């Protein structure tokens, strides 16, 4: 198998897995409990939390553990909307967001919130002038991802944060799920940050929401007290420990891995450029881990099936949006329905080997020739 879908999921690092097993064996008590075992578990969560805050340089944030970035995005968006509904009901986002952001916004829209989508420029980045035009005194939230999962475009987050900061009633939420552990990130002036360790060799079924201390969310899961007011239920002690370690391991090798992935992406683009019907949908602002492309005239599903028959794993849109409608993100950035229909995503990491990429190119060549011949 040639796995080129690391933006969807990554294998768990063995050190992370070891720690996960260890914590489950030695600190299995419920961290909400008041006996010794509970206190030990609580202490482990506290240590993991401190490590995460230090690694991400966000000492004033609260760390809320969730079941995934999907839940963290729901909590951030609905939590702000419901808690600050008397202040305003206007929210700004983009059409490049993950389904858990766009779905939360759609739900809020159905109960009377006003949602505006800021324009995206041809290079895939947010139009800051348009954001300046849209934002107003009753805007309570701007939610924009750091890097989108389909095209991998990295947004100018510090510039957006500066615009939002001029509006005291407005909070800034960043879904950084495709950025954390992959590229250097800057979290100044951001009120809420989402990420998910299974994107950086941590556990699946685990997510994190960083929340600035001054912000209050309406919890979305009710019943029982917990280590966090915002997330009731038995805390996932081993998950918290494993997340902190996964982050630590990635951050220690961030620059080196980024360089490795850049070299692989450059090589791949060079090879693929030789095919006249290949168009790259990821722009120059994309992180090297994600390469979105179209083989013009060939539906994405047909290309994916041909690759999949030969044991190559790539994805169409993202793993969370696999319906057969054309990609909204690709349509927005390229303006072409045909490219949107034929777009698919290769995603790389430092584990991707040169021989895998060479083998991929051989298979790609075969599929390209058979699917484009008249
Ligand atoms: N946001 C983005 C940008 C993502 O790529 C994903 C995963 N596809 C999510 C949120 C949801 O993550 P999780 O699987 O942890 O719910």
From TrEMBL:
The protein's required cofactors: pyridoxal 5'-phosphate
Pfam families in UniProt: Aminotran_5
Ranges for domain Aminotransferase class V: 2-360
Family matches, as SUPFAM superfamilies: PLP-dependent transferases (SSF53383)
InterPro entries per UniProt: Aminotrans_V_dom, Cysteine_dSase, PyrdxlP-dep_Trfase, PyrdxlP-dep_Trfase_major, PyrdxlP-dep_Trfase_small
Domain of life of the organism encoding this protein: Bacteria
Protein keywords: Pyridoxal phosphate
Name of the protein in its database record: Cysteine desulfurase
